[in-house]
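Quick one: examine the sequence and fold tokens given here and explain what the tokens say about the fold. Here goes:
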Amino acid sequence: LKAMKIADYVVFVSKWLESYFLNKYEIKQKTLSILNGIDQNIFYSARTQQSLNHIPFKDGKIRLVTHHFSDNYLKGFHIYNKLDEILPDYPNIEFTYIGNYNKKYKPKNIKIVGQCSGKELADTIRRHDIYITATQNEPGAMHYLEGMACGLPVLYCVGGGGAKEICSMAGEEYSNVKEFMEKVQKIKDNYQDYVKKMDYVYLSSHRCSNEYFTLINSI
């Protein structure tokens, strides 16, 4: 707040965060939201690279994936833990978790992949069909942006903060595990419709940096 008082402009990483501050505090400075962008030299869709072509739902399996560096419970473990419990009832669904899992719960049915980054992370994401996030009150996360930049439609949870602003482009919102499973099937049944809605230009770091450049030149 002290920094805001001496700034010419206050930039937020999502409209959700901007609205939160404007409603809670008296901010007299000009404000703007600029969504984060992705390095698409690393995070890109397999559909744009013939050598990395991915066949969705191969062998009848629905392959879900997410990744988190932080193991904070609000990253979505209220959903991930419940999914782990019911996955045996859905033999056609696989869920891969990349990164650090919350230490208060030991998954039995989720495939856990250790923390990775860069090309290794992107290659792993691209081997899946649908990206999921259950993060809560997240101002402007990178994980679902990276998943979408890899070409995956996304399932995002109610209460996700800034997630809805971008994930609604090519995804579905859910509020509980039952609704989650329904939306998984909906995306599978209409997969290409979601894929076609993906705006890779908007997801890019070039768009993000250009918005900052334009703002700085205008001040």
Remarks:
- The first strand starts at residue 9 and ends at 12.
